[in-house]
Amino acid sequence: MRAQRLRTGLRGWGGVGAMALACALAVLAALLLPMVHSHGADGARPDDGGRGAAHGSRARAAQECTDPEKQTLAPSGDDGPTIDEIRSRKGGKRKLVVGVDQNSYRWGYRDPNSGGDARLEGFDIDLAHRIAKDVLGDADAVQFKAIPTDQRIPAIQDGRVDMVVRTMTINCDRLQDVAFSAPYFRTGQQVLAPKSSKITGYDRSLAGTEICTAAGSTALSTLEQDQKDGKLPEGVDLRTTVPNQLDCLVRLQLGEVDAVVTDGALAASQAAQDPTVELKGDAFTTEYYGVAMKKDADDLVRRVNRVLEQWRADRAGGWQHSYDRWLSETMDDAAKSLPPAPQYLRGS
Fold first, then answer.
1. What single string gives the DSSP state of each residue in 266-326?
2. pTM for the predicted model, two decimal places
């Protein structure tokens, strides 16, 4: 069932010519990536990062977790050691360091038509500027670092970034490694495939297909668990994983995979870049994006939650303004909604 031809008709970020150049560069990057059908001799993925030994204990901890989007601290404007450390940085280093994506259309991306240095922009970028304004008094006092999907948690733990604002789903497994803010967006996993494909959604039409996911994504972990539980149709191939989600769209355009599974919000943005693909079927999970920080950064978590409350309430330049600017054209009517209502840990 695998497609055998390169898909044409790409369009995108404000102009056919600019998108053609962007896609040409993306295709070149994809061709330079190592072939992804790579497993070790024991069947382990090379990007597991040593998870095998701890998998059992982590799985048990995840089973005890319910409603991960509610496992966050109540908002506060008080300072603390994490915020003090950020503010104590000298000179040009006095910035909030934020891990983001730079190729997720409308979320965190560089518009090739913007001219100049093609600054990062998008829904996630707006939120990062808002947090920097609150913590440092300057919306531009932020240093963006492009982080691959599977490096989001290591970047936080290693101190390379203060936080990650990168369409990152709050889930029980990740709560073992990082702390999350309250949710700022609701989405769910969906299937993206060519319009001409016989795939109809997350159903039996996927039998015998090859699906691309981003390494370290909730899409991959969900599909692997469903395959283990016998919920996926026979013959579904999940071996194609990539560092960044946009690489999956490139694989689809090259005819190397039959479908992509990712968050519906991201899938809608990818469909907006390529008129030959579309979302197939409804979302089959419910998930929430949150800002990820270090486990012990309680003061920063509380501060971000206060920023989120203010951002949601701000009718002039807040959540709804950013949604209307960046996402309203790519999300269907059913997806248009107010931000999720926050809930916090009792006694926090």
1. HHHHHHHH-TTEEEES--SS-EEE--EE-TT-HHHHHHHHHHHHHHHH-TTTSHHHHIIII
2. 0.82
